[in-house]
Every structure is written in structure tokens, then in C-alpha cells.
Amino acid sequence: MSAPPRPPLLHAHGLVPRGAARGAAGLDLVWHHGETLGLVTVEAAAADGLVRALVGLEHAARGSVRVCGRELRRPDRRVQLLHADPRAALDERRSAGSAVREVLALARLGRTPALRGERAIDALGDAGLRPAQRYLGLRPADLDDAECQRLVIACALALEVEGLVVDVRGPAAMPTARAAVLELLHELRTAYSLGVLLVADDIALAAGESGRLAVLHDGAIVEAGETATVLAAPAHDVTRALLAAGPLAA
Amino acid sequence: VSALPRYTVADAEAAARLRDDGAPGGDALRVAGLTVAGPRASRPLVDGLDLVVRRGEAVGLAGERGSGAELVADAILGVLAAPLGRSGGTLALSGRPHEPRRALDALTERGLQDVRGRDVALVPPRAGDALDPTRRIDAQLTTAIRRLDRHLPRAAARARAGDLLETVGLEARERRAFPAALDVAAGQRAAIAIALAGGPSLLVCVEPGAGLDAVARAHLLDLLTRARHDLGVALLVVTADLAAIAATCHRVVVVYAGRIVEDGPTAAVLSAPAHPYTAALVRATPGLAGPQPVHGLDGRPPLPGTPPAGCAFHPRCPVRVAGCDTTVVDLRGAGPARRGRCLLLPAAGTEEAPAG
């Protein structure tokens, strides 16, 4: 009677990105639909490679990534990357409306220009760029960093993204603006059951947003579990060091 | 578990003890009515800012990009980039007891060059990038020490350089290295050693730890606290990161649109903000209230120099009332040694600056 279990949104198995140290352990990670999962690491180079491999921007040296049960061989619209610097993902010559219509056309979603235009307006509004009509003609230069981040999210939403890998490493120059983007992701999780994989160096940030934490060290997860459990009884030295570094230390 | 040198847990308890080490002495820095004007600005970018840093004290100047906080750092050192300029206010330094107060605002560029490095030193964001790539770290520091103290023999300068580099936690190998061979954290430590070369009484640190990960950042903040404790140097920490201020500073001054909106003891301000902007900044900073989701603030800060009428924060303020858009509020008393600039605070008994 029961339906077959739904495969996880993303399942990494023994994943070793290119450029990793020889003999590095692989990453095993299960990320479920609609789940906010915090991946905490201060190892910048290793995390960069993993993030690119997880969203299919780069082939891994070893191991596999499955998205909804299927092997990931090239970037998949269901799992997308939200870069720490949103401007890196945007074409500065393109207006917001045109950017969203373009990704729709490339993905062959929305058959006519008019349909794509409607979907673009919906996506901009869902990403919190309201009123969307006002943003249609604005280019990245007219937008602040947080609005650019929302525009990238709008592009992802237009493609019916199911999981966003969000890079939030490093301190924010505008904490209130970054928090607003994190708050939007929280709302999208409730409204569209969007999965969020937060890649953070600040365990306090990851712990506040995520139900589950995974701590990365030397390319492998050294501790994972429910956020409350990890915070209450950190089992690994790396986790303890991460906790001691932030405001959760007290 | 392999050896994890980069994960050594900072001795949080020791750092906390250092933070609460008694009452600081007299004023190291006294800023009154500082005003920085810019072109095409209807109002100064920094507008009548009062700030006191006592000897051996750490004060956080909290402001997001465009708030004017970073201009305060430049104004103190006399390095505001044209066309910006200081158009009013006084700046006075008095780093050591019995030393006459020196008015920075009356000094010429020549006089300021004497002060920079010796009395007040700047640690800019990503300070490691400012190292000379062609010279070894210890040689750079020796040169810096001898430039600031011309009578010091070379051997003594070299010895002092070695001590300083040990103080900031560079290994022997790193002290002899060229900057390109250092990681970002070690580069920033080296830059702090150079800032400390002249034995300044005040260190102005802008965005300490920018470009570092959370653990390296925490170690760098511990280093600043240790330097303050061991060398008696006062700190002015200019950043948008309240967690960094909470980890280092006795007092915090929050700036929005060029004006102080709140100041007071760090723990009191962060646990019960008196101004809604401070409250928003606290809610946006992960971990300050335990592992809670952060909350953002809608809208943009006003463009520098063109704030809205009344309270500059009123268009984004969740608790605004009638009158917020017209009334210019002065700083009001908001508890022991605390001030806030909000119409909702009781108006009676406008208090003096906490360090009066």
C-alpha cells in the first residue's frame, strides 16, 4: 500500500572533488526535500571544490552525486548554487526581467515570450522584489547586493528549483541585508518546500537556520546530527573549535 | 583524530577575563562633534559624532556600509580621501597619563605623520594585503620600528621585532617569510605587529578579520584583546559585525546615517537595545541570542549625505510613531551609562556622554 520511498533531493556518495589532497576521505551526504541542512567548514579550498561538484559545475575526482535518485552529470535546474557574490552570477547588461526570461528560454520552459514574461513577474515577486513591475527594467548596477541575491533566487525559482546550495561563508558587510535574504529562504522553504544547503563557516549562523548540522573536516563529514544534539554535546574536536570561535561559546 | 593546529580552541575563558579587567584610566581619544562633509550632500556624512575611548579600553563602532562609521576611522588618522573632509569637531589624543592632550585637529600633515604609528595606528580591512611583497616580514617590521624610533640601534630594533612577532603569534618560519608565503591570517597578524611597532596608545581596527574564516577570525580578535591587555593599547573596532564587537569591546557605539543612534556597555546594549536599528542589527547577527534564525531589515539605508527628514531610520523602523518623520531627536539617557536617539525613549533627563 505504501508508496516507494522518495529518493532524497541530493545524495553524495564518497564524493572527492578535483584538486583534493591524495587519500582524502569522500563526502557522504543526504539532503532531503524541503530540508535546511547546515554544512559547516572553515576549509575554504575544500569547500569550494565540494560546492561546485554538488551542483554539477565540476566533475568530481571520485564518488557520485545523485539528484532525486539520478546521477548528476551536468548542472541540473533542481539543485542550484547561490553564490556568496551574486553579481558574479549576473550579466550586468541584462535587466532583471530579461535575466529571468533568458533562463526560462534556455531551459525551454514557457512556450511563448508572453508566458515567459508572466513567469518572470511571478518569480521576481516570489523572490521578494516587489512590486515586480518596477524591477523588470533594472540592471544589476541599479540593485544593491541583497536585491541581486534576490534576482538570482528569482532565476532559480523560475526554473522550479527544488534545492538551493547557499554559500554564506565570511562576515557580511550588510548584516541586515544578508539576514533578509536568509529570512526569504526560510519563507520559501515553508511556501514551496524548497531545500536549502547552507555552506557556512559560522556555526552560529548554520545552527540558527538549520534543522540538521554536518561538520566538514578534510573533505569528510566528521560529525552530523540534529542541530540541538550537536550543540548540546559536540563530539568532535573540530565542532568544539567551531563553537568556541563564535557567540555560541558562552 | 589528526593533529588540528588550526583548530586550537581559543581560551575563551581567559579572553573573557581579559575583557573584564577593571576600570580603564583616562581618555586615550576624545572626539567631540566630529563632522565630515562630502560633495552634493545635503547633510554631513558624519554628523556631530562624540566618542570617547579610555586608556586600555576597547570600544566598538558598529555601522553597516554607508553608515559613516568607516569615515570616523579615517578622520581620526587624518586620511579622509578627497573630496571628503573634516568640516567640524575636535579630536584629541592623550595616550599616557601626565601626557598633555594633543589636538589632532590642529595638526598639519607633517604633525600628523609624527602621530600616526606612534600614538594612533590603523589596521585597515585585509591589512595583510598592505605588506611589502618584496621584503621578509621581520625586515619590514625592523624598518618600521626604526622609522618610528630613529635612535634605536639596529640590533635592538631587530630584537624588538622578534618579540612583537612572537606576541602576535607568528611562528619562526613565518617571521622569516615573504608575505606571499603567508596565509591570510598570518599576513593580518604581521600587519598588526607593524601597527604596534611604534607602541601606539590607540589601535583603530577596521573590519578586523575580513577575509578570514570564523575560527581564524576568533583567533585574531583574541590577539587584539591580548595586545590591549599586555601592551595597554586602547582599541577602536569599526565593523558591522556585532559578534566581533561582543567578543572584544567594553562599550559599543552604533551609527546609522552618520549619527550615533545608541551607545553604552556592550552586554547591556546587545541584550536590550534601546534603539530599533540596534535591535534590527542584533536580530540580523547570528548567535547573539542563541541558535535562532536571523531576521532581516527591509529597505535600504539612505544614501550617504541624503537622509530622510526627522529620524533617519524612520522609513525602515518597525515601531515608528507619528512624529518620527519630522522630529529630530537628540541622544537621550537610556539606562546606566547608556544613550539612545529615539522618540520612544523617555525624554526627561538628557544625559551626558557616558564617559563624560
Task: Write the SSE topology.
The complex is a heterodimer of chains A (about 250) and B (about 350).
Chain A lengths: L9 E8 L9 E5 L4 E5 L3 H11 L5 E8 L2 E2 L7 E4 L13 H11 L6 H14 L5 H4 L9 H14 L4 E5 L7 H18 L2 E6 L2 H7 L2 E6 L2 E7 H6 L4 H8 L6
Parallel strand pairs in A: 3-8, 3-9, 6-7, 7-8
Antiparallel strand pairs in A: 1-2, 1-4, 4-5, 9-10
Chain B lengths: L11 H8 L7 E11 L8 E9 L3 E5 L6 H9 L7 E9 L8 E2 L5 H7 L4 E4 L13 H12 L5 H14 L4 H4 L8 H12 L6 E5 L7 H18 L2 E6 L2 H7 L2 E6 L2 E7 H6 L4 H9 L47 E2 L5 E2 L16
Parallel strand pairs in B: 3-8, 3-9, 6-7, 7-8
Antiparallel strand pairs in B: 1-2, 1-4, 4-5, 9-10, 10-12, 11-12
Helix pairs in contact in B: 4-5
What features would you highlight for this structure?
A: 250 residues, four-stranded antiparallel beta sheet, 9 helices, 10 strands, B: 356 residues, alpha/beta, eight-stranded mixed beta sheet, 11 helices, 19% strand, globular
* Biggest sheet character of chain B: 8 strands, mixed
Query: Uncertain runs of chain B with pLDDT below 50, 5 residues or more?
Result: 1-5, 350-356
Overall pLDDT of chain A = 93
The helix content of chain A, as a percent range, equals 25-40%
Note the total helix count of chain A.
9
Apparent shape of chain A: globular
Written as H for each helix and E for each strand, in order along the chain, the element string of chain B is HEEEHEEHEHHHHEHEHEEHHEE
What's the number of extended β-strand segments of chain A? 10
Radius of gyration of chain A, taken over Cα atoms and rounded to an integer in Å: 18 Å
The N- to C-terminal Cα distance of chain A equals: 50 Å
Q: Quick one: which chains have the greatest interface? A: A-B, 46 and 48 residues
In whole angstroms, the N-to-C terminal distance of chain B is: 53 Å
**Rounded radius of gyration of chain B (Å):** 21 Å
The proportion of strand residues of chain A reads: 15-25%
Average residue pLDDT of chain B: 88
β-strand percent of chain B reads 15-25%
Secondary-structure element sequence of chain A?
A: EEEHEEEHHHHEHEHEEHH
